Amino acid sequence: MQIDAVDQRIIALLVADARASYADIGTRVSLSAPAVKRRVDRLRSAGVIRGFTAVVDPAAVGWTTEAFVELFCAGRTTPAQIGAAARRHPEVVGAYTVSGEADALVHLRAADISHLEEALERLRAESFVTSSRSTIVLSRLVESPGVGPSTP
C-alpha cells in the first residue's frame, strides 16, 4: 500500500489525538472531512491503523513502579512461547525478542516494589526461564506513542 505525506500526517495527528474529528484533521492537512474519512478507512482496511485506544497514565491508576527484565531461556524456547507466557501476566506491558545475551526483554509495571517482586517471581517461574536480570526504572525521560519522527 502506498502511504503518501498526507497519510503520514493524518496518522501522526491520530496518534497525537485519536479523538480528533475528521473535520479538525482535514483543516490541518487541507482536505475535507469526507476525504480524511476515506483515507482513514483505507488505512484501517489495509491494517496500517489497527485501532484507536485510550492512553492511561499508569501513575493515575496506581501502577508507579516499573522494570525491564532480561529473560534467559532454555535451549529451544520460541518467541511464541515467550509471548504466550508474557500475556499470562497482567503486569507485562511489553515483551520483545532482542539481540545480545538475553533471549527476551520484558517491560513490567506494578503498584509498588512488593507487587513488582511478586510479578517477577511469577515470570521467572515460567518453565523455560533459566535466569533473569532486572533493571528498575527511576524516571521516564522520553515517551512517545508515535510510529516515527513525524509530528502533527
UniProtKB/TrEMBL annotation:
One Pfam family it belongs to: AsnC_trans_reg
Domain of life per record: Bacteria
Coiled coil keyword on record: no
InterPro entries cross-referenced by the UniProt entry: AsnC-type_HTH_dom, Dimeric_a/b-barrel, Tscrpt_reg_AsnC-like, Tscrpt_reg_AsnC/Lrp_C, WH-like_DNA-bd_sf, WH_DNA-bd_sf
UniProt keyword terms in alphabetical order: DNA-binding, Transcription, Transcription regulation
The keyword DNA-binding belongs to this UniProt entry's keyword annotation: yes
Domain HTH asnC-type intervals: 3-64
Name under which the protein is recorded: Lrp/AsnC family transcriptional regulator
UniProt organism field: Micromonospora chalcea
